[in-house]
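Hi W., the cytidine-5'-monophosphate complex you wanted:
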Amino acid sequence: MGKDVIIALDFNGEDAVYGFLDKFRDEKPYVKIGMELFYSAGPGIVREIKRRGHKIFLDLKLHDIPTTVKKAMAVLSALDVDMCNLHAAGTIEMMKAAIEGLVRADGTRPKLIAVTQLTSTSEERMQKELLISATISETVVKYAQNAKEAGLDGVVCSPLEAEMVKAACGKEFMTVTPGVRFADSDKGDQVRITTPARAKEIGSDYIVVGRPITEAEDPVKEYRRCIAEFVD
Ligand code: C5P
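Structure:
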């Protein structure tokens, strides 16, 4: 499986996004479009970034009844994105419906990965508010196994969970991991972080990197540094 670095396009407007992407002249990085950008700029931004030749991970984390998710996934698939995601909490039935919705007329489909438990959810809150009595680790592994059973390609998880997920679901089951920082860079609000080199050792298939690249003085240089540590 090809490893790659995905840049999180966490910008608040289209001009900022295009200004950023224009800095890349020799490469076309894989990018992630999240809810804020998609809801403000609309599907047009996906088409434009695709037209510019980038691969796109559309990070909209769907969670609804199976029929609704199936129909929504069909719309996203028609935008020709390369990867999208949903919440595994929607059940195996919802995840199977999502896959059905993603399959295009020619038989191809974007990769589909699941969010297990958000890294912002503490074990205490999960147990007290959601009445899930298992540990976070057990829940993450079970949700990943459900995603695998439904036919999904992998999960988005913290680098520290990636090893557990690989052990439970197999090497081929993809792990996409945010929370990446260079050993010498600012952590920002991320707590449980790892370096690109360590993410590679752990077995992540894709790392999602935002601010270390988007807020750098020389984003292209930092992107290349990520590629050098994680991919090459
Ligand atoms: O700037 P930074 O590298 O922290 O950006 C990480 C990206 O990954 C952001 O888009 C963030 O929303 C996303 N993400 C995350 N942690 C998760 C899930 C998604 O940081 N558990």
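The chain has one domain: 4-230.

W.
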